[in-house]
Structures are given as structure tokens and as C-alpha cells.
């Protein structure tokens, strides 16, 4: 099994003078499931690309370490990187149809994937993979092109293609965003069941806080290229610590009482042009002090929270509960 350890990772786009990752730290235990949540622009997809060293050529990584198991991904040779991607890593993309080759039938695509890992490429094997994803009439589906199947079925095919290689690490980038609610829940269930059966570590990028709490072991909340809070999925949104996590939880429609007005987060995420000297969330934070704009926060002992007021805010929460 494969865990992930990321230390002080910085990624910049020099031509645009943009810093996408600003000293990010993350630990994912082997065989566990970690959700990465945060607004668009927080750096989630950039992080996912770096783990497979799939970032654009225009990106520059001045410092940082990315370990997947015992392998230093940033130091792998071209040949070792190809082996790593083929044997240990799998991605499930957001667009199910777009992730499949439109010129090939489903069966042919499955056959090619199985061939690369030296597996049985027979029709029976392909049919078994689709049956495992609860696809009806798999023999018929094997003869179809991607445009001839629904989005939900396409995502099930994509998951089957990813998991048949028995990856040690699965990165799922909003894999159900284009699906309706009923299909979304079924696809998520199948993805997690397959991963747990194989002992695969999951890194799931998502905006669905309710699903994240239900399915994942841990949650990492990203903002401005850093993980600002990390902890057990069941408690991060029930008892959030960092002000940004609190704001996300208050803006989640599924957590609002009937008739309750949602509290939006004012402002927009920052576009960093270098290292954030203070707290990047300070301009939007209801708890910010003057020093928050000048002091770069370091992880607290409470859920890795990047806030200089973490201990104070948690103490105030406890007082309110006991009052």
C-alpha cells in the first residue's frame, strides 16, 4: 500500500508571476481515504497534477518534496516515472466522457489497458470488470463508443479502467461533478468499495462536503495553495477550527436548517505572486487581527490549523458550549 507525504511544496508559473502552491504540507496514510476541499483556485487540481508529475511545462517547483510510498516523485528519471504512473498511480477525471478515447469502442480501450499490465485481455475479463461496476448488459457496452453511453456509465467504465491496474494510489478529481444526485451516490460507493477491496489509497478532490464527511477518513482544507486545516472527516466540518473551514461549513446548503439564510464568504480567493507574508485568508476573515496580515501562520497542535488564533478560538467555542 502507498501513502503520500508532501513537505513545503511550492509551485509557481514564472511567466504569469503566479504562485499556485505556497509551501504546502500534507500526509495521507497508506490505505486511507483523504478528501481535499476548498474553493476553486485554492490549488487542489495543481496538487493532484504534481503527485503524478503531470504539471504543465510552464510550472516551476523551486522547493518541496513529494513522496509516494518510498518514491521521491520529483526525483524520478523519465523511465522510472513511466513505471510509477503505470504501476502505482491512477487518475479518475472530472469529465467522464472526455476521459475516454472517442475513436475507440469501450472494449478496445479496456483491452489496451489490460495489455499494458500483462493481464488477461479476453472478452470474459472485460465483461467481468464492467459487471463489477454494476453495468447492465456489459457485452453490449463493450461494443459501444463513448458518445453512445451515459455520463454515469462512462464514469463507471473509467473507474473500471483505473482500478483494473490495482493502483496503490487513486486520485479522483471531482469524478461525479457532471452526474445527477442518484447516479453520483452510486458511482462514489462503487469507487470506494473497489479501492477498499484492493487496499488503494484515495485522494479525492471534491466540493461535496456532505459526501466527503460520509465516505472519507480524513479531510484536508486548502486555501491559497496551503492546507489550512486537516483532521478526521467526521469532525472537521462538525467542529471546524480554522476560520476558513468555519466559513465553508456555514456556506454549505446541506448543513443549513430549513428557512435558514446561508452565510456566504465575502471577497474572492487571492492570486498570489509570491510567498504570502501573512495569512492569505485574513482579508476575508471575520476573526482577523492586524497581526494576521503580517505573520505567516504555522501549523498549530490542533488539526494542523494555520491560524495564529486557533487556540483562542477553540477555547471560546468550549466556553460557549459549557455556558
UniProtKB/TrEMBL annotation:
CDD domains in UniProt: ABC_NikE_OppD_transporters
Record InterPro entries: AAA+_ATPase, ABC_Ni/Peptide_Import, ABC_transporter-like_ATP-bd, ABC_transporter-like_CS, Oligopep_ABC_C, P-loop_NTPase
A molecular function GO annotation: ATP binding
Domain ABC transporter, chain residue ranges per copy: 4-249
Entry keyword set: ATP-binding, Cell inner membrane, Cell membrane, Membrane, Nucleotide-binding, Translocase, Transport
Domain of life according to the entry: Bacteria
Protein name listed in UniProt: ABC transporter ATP-binding protein
Biological source species: Microbacterium koreense
